[in-house]
# Entry
Amino acid sequence: MAHDLVIVANRLPVDRVAGPDGKMGWRASPGGLVSAIEPVMRAGDGVWIGWPGGTEQHLEPFDIDGLHLVPMSMTPEEIENHYEGMSNGTLWPLYHDVVAKPEFHREWWHEYVEVNRRFAEKAAELAAPNATVWVHDYQMQMVPQLLRELRPDLRIGFYLHIPFPPAELFQQLPWRRQILEGILGADLVGFQLPGAAQNFVRLVRQRVGHKTHRDLVYLPDGRTVRAAAFPISIDATGFDDLARSEIVARRAQEIREALGNPKKIFLGIDRLDYTKGIYARLRSFGELIRDGELDVDEAVFVQVAVPSREQVEQYRLLRDEIDRLVGRLNGDLGRIGKPLISYLHSSYPREEMAALYRAADIMVVTPYRDGMNLVAKEYVACRVDEDGALVLSEFAGAADELRQAWLVNPYDIDGMKAALLSACRADEHELTKRMRAMRKQITQHDVKAWAESFMTELDAEREHTKTVRSADRS
Ligand code: F6P
# Structure
């Protein structure tokens, strides 16, 4: 069957996992992309192409909760080279300010292109004439070009969920020109922030040599490509409703009690990733306890670290580092029944996350670099009583919108300590003033508005190209 909307992403919104009885089933997969796209898919009759995780081959398309999903299998070599290698060993660290050192391997690159080709071929097969294909994220940057070669009739959008680095970093990439040309197969290229779009246009001018003007790239074949910012958001009303529900309110209360009803609960929720700044954040909190600024009888830090990319070396090292730090802090500074860090290495369903957000007085989101960070927005959406404080890294995309957070430089431990204390000691009036403004921002700019604005622009860009081309012909 042909579809008018095709979503192409590295992952499906579900994972293929074995249950305790050994039977295979589906489970919601972690990450911001899923929560962002799901509402868009449900609204239209779209199909989603992606990898379900694991190495199972020959999976049939299936529907789940009204979503049409087409699983793309990957071989162990493809996982190693395309996913763990090129995507998460090269592009991820390079695009995140080289927080970890990117590795460049030719066999990773070749497999990346081949996997992108397979995804492009599947999209070409499933898309109706003149359909819209929306390609997502850094694992799929070659798809727009490969797809356009197969199906020039399609309207193609590309959205990068993570930062796009400045030229000084991007040009380290041995395949920089190919990646830029890969993305330029799209009609519209979306980024989280205007600075990323500007980085892209500048690089296209310098490295590919195309003419550009402001946010437009002029290609030799007459097409124009627009690069612009579309800051992603969350289903704010959905989170608000969930947080207000009886079950979540009760669970939030239970969590506070289980922690010994401390005066202040600090919370961090992140994928266990070296970009997230978990180590420095816990260290800051530990120093505040050590210095006597906070009392272990009155304050606790709950850190949820969602397991992620566990086969990649850097992630394993990080896990060990955090394990050691938590053990040391609790061992040195905790008391019987009073660890200062309550550390959970696990993923949780939305309801439990909402209960944690409701239970926490201070949410601490301190990545070294982050495309957006939806956890920050989810916390705000769940603060239905207009209280709670957000401590947020300046280097998260969300800082552009959530200006009333306590903004911090995550490399500055003393600055972070001061912000944690200030957020902890803020009075009710100040908390409400800040939270109210942030709630207004995310309610007015939710994920529905994000998807609609991207789709509207994509239509407009395609029309623009058609008009220019027919004018050229006449
Ligand atoms: O937001 C970046 C991202 O890589 C998404 O593309 C992905 O869904 C999520 O993080 C989780 O990462 P992974 O698919 O590697 O588990």
Observations:
- Residues 366 and 393 are 4 Å apart (CA to CA).
- Residues 447-473 form the longest helix (27 residues).
